[in-house]
Specification:
With 156 residues, the chain is α/β, with parallel strands linked by helices. The chain is built from seven helices and five strands; from the N terminus they run αβαβααβαβαβα. Strands 3-2-1-4-5 form a five-stranded parallel sheet. The chain is globular. The chain starts with a helix and ends with a helix.
């Protein structure tokens, strides 16, 4: 897991090597095949994939007091174990706007469940000539649904 400055240095090194930097973000709580397929599709959009993970505090702010299930360091560790992920950084805000401004990626990837005009960081990426890609969301995979199934199983 990188600090913001380490992530920026990683981006700078990759750019010097002529590589295209892809950025995505999310909670990635209880990693499932839908997440893996999404991250693989994101990585296919460039040469190096940076994943920004919501801090535990920002997850609680966005999803409620019962989340995350896995702490941020553990979520980052699992993501870094994936071959398609080149770097992981944690952000503490409700949106990734500041980390996107800090890193200035070439490609911003979000799930197609996000409306194009609602993607945070779009203006930053497009202003420097980058592009935004919306990746189809795998049907049948949802962390919230997995949590509900687990809770239902325990209460039987």
């Amino acid at each position: 897991m990188l600090t913001w400055d380490e992530a920026a240095a990683f981006v700078e090194t990759q750019r010097r090597l002529g590589r295209r930097i892809v950025f995505t973000n999310g909670v990635f709580d209880l990693l499932h095949p839908g997440h893996v397929r999404y991250l693989q599709a994101a990585r296919a959009e460039g040469d190096a994939l940076i994943v920004a993970v919501n801090s535990d505090r920002s997850v609680r702010a966005n999803k409620g007091p019962s989340r995350p299930i896995m702490p941020e360091r553990e979520r980052a560790e699992v993501l870094m174990a994936l071959a398609c992920v080149d770097a992981v950084v944690v952000f503490d805000e409700e949106t990734p706007a500041r980390i996107i401004e800090h890193l200035q990626p070439d490609v911003l990837v979000k799930g197609a469940d996000w409306a194009a005009d609602a993607i945070v960081g779009r203006d930053t990426v497009e202003a420097r000539g980058g592009r935004v890609v919306r990746v189809p969301v795998e049907q049948g995979w949802s962390t919230s649904a997995i949590i509900e199934r687990a809770r239902a199983a325990v209460s039987r």
